[in-house]
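Reviewers asked in the last cycle whether our approach scales beyond single polypeptides. To address this, we selected a multi-component target totalling 730 residues and predicted its structure end to end. The input consisted of the following lines:
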Amino acid sequence: MPGHRKTIKDVARTLGVSAATVSRALAGNPRISPETRQRVEATARDIGYIPNRAAQSLVSGRGSGFVGLILTDPGYGREDSYLGEFISGLGAGLGQHGIDLFLAAVPETQSELSVIRNIVGTHRADGLIIARTSEADPRIEFLSSAGFPFVTHGRTSIEAPQHSWVDTDGTAAFAEAFEVLYALGHRRFGLVTIKEPMMFRQHRTEGLLQAIARRGDPEVSLQIATSPRYDGARRHDAIAALLSAPERPTAVLTLFDGLALTVLEEAAHLGLSVPGDLSVIGFDNIASSALARPGLTTFDSETTRSARESARMLVAQLAEKTRPAVPETLLIRPKLVLRASHGPVRLSPRGQTTQLAHNGRGARK
Amino acid sequence: MPGHRKTIKDVARTLGVSAATVSRALAGNPRISPETRQRVEATARDIGYIPNRAAQSLVSGRGSGFVGLILTDPGYGREDSYLGEFISGLGAGLGQHGIDLFLAAVPETQSELSVIRNIVGTHRADGLIIARTSEADPRIEFLSSAGFPFVTHGRTSIEAPQHSWVDTDGTAAFAEAFEVLYALGHRRFGLVTIKEPMMFRQHRTEGLLQAIARRGDPEVSLQIATSPRYDGARRHDAIAALLSAPERPTAVLTLFDGLALTVLEEAAHLGLSVPGDLSVIGFDNIASSALARPGLTTFDSETTRSARESARMLVAQLAEKTRPAVPETLLIRPKLVLRASHGPVRLSPRGQTTQLAHNGRGARK
DNA sequence: GGCATTTGTGCAAACGTTTACACAATCATG
DNA sequence: CATGATTGTGTAAACGTTTGCACAAATGCC
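The resulting structure, written as structure tokens, was:
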């Protein structure tokens, strides 16, 4: 059977030219006559020739045609649809350019960094997408020094960027949330945050603190509840404590919707009406937020769009031979999705507020 | 700079042996003395030698080390966390075997089948995972006839399998749901289903119909509401119609949780109490189901486990040279997650029920 | 019409591996 | 001590492609 895969030589033979000519014709080499190119392309298609990528990349050192995404976070996928949305966006952004997405799982026995090192070493991928950056991120340091193309979803520092990234402007969003609530009369604020040093934690928190400071209203107070990211029980406890404090906040911002939904639950549990007794604003606009009672006011973080843009940037980076002197960055402003979990403050009978130090950091309950 | 990538020759040179010896030693060829193997391995590690996969697969015809997953469904990722969970499971299952996952997006301009054909042609992947099978699935036909290794998540036919698959036993689950509700006194049932001819639709529906037929109680009736899968408005309409029928069902099964949540919403809208006036059971146990009010009784479909098993099967298939005569299959029995959306039927004042024809198919409203 | 230039093509080497075959050294056997 | 088996290693070809170099033919110029 001639079931064997067609090679460039087969094309050459049927056409009576050399393999070199076929190679050049297919590569669009200008030294091949247009007429020959035509004939080559036709026969290549006819006999079903498909270039052998292994051979190609062996000789030309050309990339693998893959862009990698590291699958690490065990909470990925379970809690929300972040991963699904992100991947959909990446796939769409890359597919247009004939690049495929390659997912590397991190086995329990290995560190994420070692997986990255392996990918870089083996050239398994031509570039990497790094999701969910944390505050001190060794991955980024390694990739930068290795000169490997990558784009992060999430910034790492406020300073001038050393690499390309796409991020959500959590700073602006949280400032906006504060202003909306302040305008509704709220003065006692709560923030539900996580222990883990993710960049988005830092940005969103700062957005809130800066907005409070900018306002400069001494009546504004802020109480902060912190819990581990994936520990449901601790999360409930922390939030319950926040809501049952004697001077409990009348408005609570949360780092992401999952936390806000828990606030909603705890509020119901404690007999607090939302938004009557308590306003709640989340972040991300996950599917459950629309279904919550009351519907959660939150920010749409446009994960899919971020992913598509990340893909675009990485592809652009791969196309250039050298790394761009000044990396491309994109800050996406999340849109406030108004639903029913926020409203004007209800004048409480015993309504005195805690003082706020002007450095912007509120008293910790 | 010696920044060039180390080759097998570098190892050979530093050791004073031939490249062939190094290759054999690293491959575990038994004709190499243990002592030499030791030395080779040591120096290889020392100088940081990483085999060039392109060269390897060029000469040995060995596979690419990738397993592909086709990203097609635009609803993927948005509605629930299926994609995220599935990918996490796949990654975990494959990572253990040093195989990587590769995601191919389907551009709007191309059909999924052409993408698959391309992957098979280019040997971009050694095997494929096909998710969410539909009732007449050309993908499966093509892959089967091409002799390409693959595993599907979801069956395609009830008959003896021609290929390996992992699936969720929706038939048994829906029968179980029916029995639970029947025991609680329900006789008027509703089913919310979708237009699209997915396999899981068929299996789950049949499970319910069979259970009804088995019961043989002429008092049992079934009304069916159908809507397009992703059309929220039509979905609401169809469900509202079902719930406001004069002889509306007292218990509603839905094909998946998304539909059940809509039932919950519509019930609230119509002033029906759940589970007092209406029992609802979903399928999949998505995150929102636990947060719904009342908590949704549903089945846990164990997506992650399915994915892990799919990966395992595919890896096993790849390891064998020939396709197994009798494909491996796995039917996972979903576990009923009892929450608060179902309960005993409330005796209605005007409680006569529709007759049920004995072929098991109920009257369509 | 001779010469330089342009244009199109072929030859052969190279990329980093694996592997069939050959061969040298060692060893047991008679 | 010759013989054959065993053991370990080297040689060289092959995988399918790209590309530097050479070269023949066609073209332009004086």
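Chain B is about 40% helix and 15% strand. We regard this as preliminary and will revisit it once experimental data from Aim 1 are available.
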